[in-house]
Write a structure and sequence with these properties.
This protein is mainly α. The two termini are about 25 Å apart.
Length: about 210
């Protein structure tokens, strides 16, 4: 699979980036959709956030790698209607938890299930993210699957602490580099070691510039 090779002095060496991740994260083979998804995220980061800590971006990439099943494209949470209702609805297994996160109507569990590059979940999070980026995700939750929208939900959401109140600057700064506990930005320490491994590899791939 051909990968982008255009570079600018002082910027990410994309030829190295794709060569590295192909070998260490994708078992030697990248599909076109994966290349396109990663390229779009690289473009967004370099255009808007290049002055920020690359460890943040590496952790975002590791998160998206895990949350999308390595497709690096916006996806809908796996599981049918019954599973999503049981997990997120007031008619499901934990109605108090559903209400705390804004799912107050029967059907909200399916309507506000995980979507995107980082699996945005719960009505309250759709509302918060939509207000932040200027679209009505509460009324149209499917917009979270639009690539440009999903990118901002991933990038800004993890930098600004939309999900759990924790943000990446707490875990990567001048005094701290905590790849495992950075998972608390999204979801406690669920799959924390696996995502930390992915993120470290992405950081290695990002570290070579021209």
């Amino acid at each position: 699979m051909d990968t982008p090779e255009t570079t600018t002095a002082g910027c990410l060496n994309r030829k190295f980036f794709f060569s590295f991740i192909r070998e260490y994260l994708f078992a030697g083979k990248l599909r076109q959709g994966q290349v396109e998804g990663l390229s779009a995220l690289l473009d967004a980061w370099e255009a808007q956030y290049a002055a920020e800590d690359d460890r943040w971006f590496a952790y975002m990439l590791g998160t998206a790698h895990h949350e999308t099943g390595q497709t690096l494209r916006p996806v809908v949470e796996r599981g049918g209607t019954l599973y999503l209702r049981k997990r997120y609805d007031i008619s499901g297994d934990d109605p108090d938890r559903a209400r705390r996160h804004g799912n107050t109507q029967v059907g909200d569990g399916v309507r506000y299930a995980g979507r995107g590059l980082v699996q945005l979940t719960w009505k309250s999070n759709y509302r918060r993210a939509g207000k932040a980026i200027g679209i009505n995700l509460e009324e149209e939750p499917g917009l979270a699957l639009e690539p440009a929208v999903a990118q901002q939900i991933l990038l800004r959401g993890m930098m600004e602490g939309w999900y759990t109140g924790r943000h990446l600057g707490e875990f990567f700064n001048a005094e701290r580099e905590d790849w495992r506990n950075a998972r608390r930005v999204i979801n406690g320490v669920d799959q924390a070691d696996r995502i930390a491994e992915y993120a470290r590899l992405y950081y290695a791939a990002l570290s070579y510039t021209v």
